[in-house]
Specification:
With 220 residues, the chain is α/β, with parallel strands linked by helices. It has one domain: Rossmann fold. It is built from 7 helices and 7 strands; from the N terminus they run αβαββαβαβββααα.
Amino acid sequence: MRILLFLLISIYSFTGISQPYSYKIGLLKYNGGGDWYSNPTALTNLIMFSNKQIGTNINPEYDQVEIGSYLLFNYPFVHLTGHGNIVLNQQEVDNLRTYLIAGGFLHISDNYGLDPFIRKEIKKLFPELDFVELPYSHPIYHQKFDFNNGLPKIHQHDEKPSVGYGLIYKGRLICFYDFECDLGDGWEDAEIHRDSEESRTKALQMGANILSYTFIGKKD
């Protein structure tokens, strides 16, 4: 199934003007009132950091993509964030489930307030699965950059520890969810949140690990 997804990506890539980049990634648009568009500088900064630091070849111009669109299958990696409500209709549920089973990867970053809403929507996709806390030994924490204590803490929010959750389908991690961490804020331009350079670097390094896990090799 993963081969099918990348065949679709390859077909799409060669239907237009040739680009110097191997991939694009997508930012998911959703309904329900939540601000899916928050952190507008985050993905571009992450992509540029990853291209430089770990050798990915991702187009810095990410696309906004509707969850229910067939265009979803053009992106091997999609990112979802926000502070509030998200509601998926049945067509969106079916499309996103098919995308993930076919080899796509979803990264969810709770921008504070998303958690109670995203959990029930993900349960619609995979009623048979639960988010599980990934151990610190998981390969996603040990790509180029080692995070021996799991996710870095970028913003305090409720002052709880950062937790990285995974959704695992038939032995494959198909979704990574950072909670009480706020990686996306850490990827934004420095002047937006005024995070320390150390915090921003850790956020970008962890983000690069997620992309590395998806694009380069999982080191499972």
